[in-house]
Each structure stands twice: as C-alpha cells, then as structure tokens.
Amino acid sequence: MRQSMKMCIWLGSPDCYRNQDNVLCTPSQATSARYRADMALREGPPGRTYRNSTIAKSSDERQGTTPFNVLPFSTGGQPTAFKHPASTPYNLADWWCKYLLSKNGTLLDMFAGSGTCLQSGLENGAKSVIGIEKKKSYLTTTKKRIQNS
Question: Which side of the chain, N or C, has fewer Cβ within a 10 Å radius?
C-alpha cells in the first residue's frame, strides 16, 4: 500500500449499529448524469434487457452514496503537534465515529496513540471514551487533547 493510504478494517456484525445517513457522499454532477443515463433500458448480447440503475436510484433516494472501500480524505493539513508515528487523520476518525458511534454511546480505542479517535468520539456525541495505550508519553498527550475537546 502507498504511504498516503491508511488501512482500516471494520469487523462489525451485519446487525450492529451503523448510521449511513451521517456519512453520505454527494455525487458530482457528472456522476449523477452518468447514473441517470444508466436508468435507460439496455439490451445485452443474448437479447436480455437490463438497467444499470440500482446505484442511481439508491443515490437519488438517499441524496448521496457511501463509499465502497476507499475514503477520499486528505492527510495534508492535519495537526502535527502530536508527534505520533502512525497518526490517524482526524477526518478519517471523524468518518468512522459518525458511521459507527451512536449518540451517547461509548467509544473504545485499543490503540489510542495521540487520541485522535477519542477526540472525535467526544465531538460526535459519545457519552464516554476509553483509550488504551502502552506508551505513557502518548497518554499525556491524549489527556491534554481530550480535555481541550
């Protein structure tokens, strides 16, 4: 993977809390036009008809779509004062919290680092956040960061 990519793996069960409305991406005008064109009835080689409109219909009904496997967040312009070698961009932590954290829920970050996910959890309505980190120097940074949220 490129250094500009950060891999995240979500292992939630199909029935766990997810709020897709919080993370909808509005498609561009060009994409919307292409989706609408895909609503037309087409004929395939064996003579069967089909429409490529499922995504278009869903997008129109929900006023957006959720990304499939790559979230387009810039890593530039992120706070660098925390000096953590594997820092998570705040926008990424914020997306996950908006998607998976229920209002008044509890966020558990088993690799708290400099506290990016914990901060985002508090800013997205978590009742409480729990961070686990093995390096004491990062815990000090995390505590300061959370107290300022």
Answer: N
Average pLDDT, the chain: 77
Distance CA 124, CA 127 (A): 9
Residue closest to 131 by CA, chosen among 123, 119, 69, 70: 119
Give the model's confidence band at 89: pLDDT under 50 very low, under 70 low, under 90 confident, else very high: confident
Closest CA to 114 of 79, 77, 74, 71: 79
- On the question of pLDDT at 53 being above 90, the answer is no
- Residue 59 pLDDT > 90, yes or no? no
Of 92, 112, 76, nearest to 6 by C-alpha is 92
Tell me the domains of the chain and their CATH numbers.
Answer: 23-62 (no CATH), 85-147 (3.40.50.150)
49 bridge partner residues? 43
As a 3-state breakdown, the chain gives helix, strand, coil percent values, each rounded to 5, of 35, 10, 55
11/8 Cα distance (integer angstroms): 10
Q: Hey, what are 145's tokens?
A: 């960061």
For residues 24 and 65, what is the distance between their CA atoms, to the nearest angstrom?
5
